[in-house]
Specification:
The protein has about 190 residues and is of the alpha+beta class. It has one domain: Nuclear Transport Factor 2, Chain: A, CATH 3.10.450. It has 4 helices and 6 strands; from the N terminus they run H-H-H-E-E-H-E-E-E-E. It has helices spanning about 5-15, 30-45, 50-55, 85-95, and strands spanning about 60-65, 80-85, 110-120, 130-140, 145-160, 160-170. A 6-stranded mixed beta sheet has the order 2-1-6-5-4-3. Strand 4 and strand 5 (about 145-160) form a beta hairpin. The longest helix has 19 residues, at about 30-45. The two termini are about 30 Å apart.
Amino acid sequence: MNADRRAGAVQLEALADGAGKMVRSSVDAETRMNVEEFLFHQADLLDTKRWSEYVGLFSGNGIYWMPARAEQTTWQGVPSIFAEDINLMNIRVKRIGHPRAWSQQMEWATSHVVANVRVGAPDPASGILTACSNFHMTELRGDYQRYFAGRYAHQLRRRGDAFEIMLQRVDLLSAQIPFDYVIQAWV
């Protein structure tokens, strides 16, 4: 396990009960504002279907993870709703972006709202910081609308003037209930 993964695993333990353990920010106002802008930009990329750009926000070994249960501390060897590395995310981009993708033939749109952002101080060894936030997402599919809500936990590392995602954990409030149809893109 490389140093970034070890640091991520330590921070992930702090998020074992879901993404809400961190209750207030512990960084300066500028860093907090930059993280908020990054999270808002991420939501905009998803809502405007710029999925390749969204995947580009992840580090080369970044992970998008949606656990099946809030108490999960790993995606390895246990069922998850999503546990995708860059390769799997790029496959998803190609699948949903294909001109004959049946799932994309009907009108489909999302609207993300990200709020209550809390940012922890960077890990001294790796520089990775953890940001927790709440989200609401509305999805329109044909003439049907559904809602998702929950918590995000991002492990971010500075990349130049911006950040890159080492891990994005998505804890759905409704993770235990059956869905009417498959989640096509990222929540």
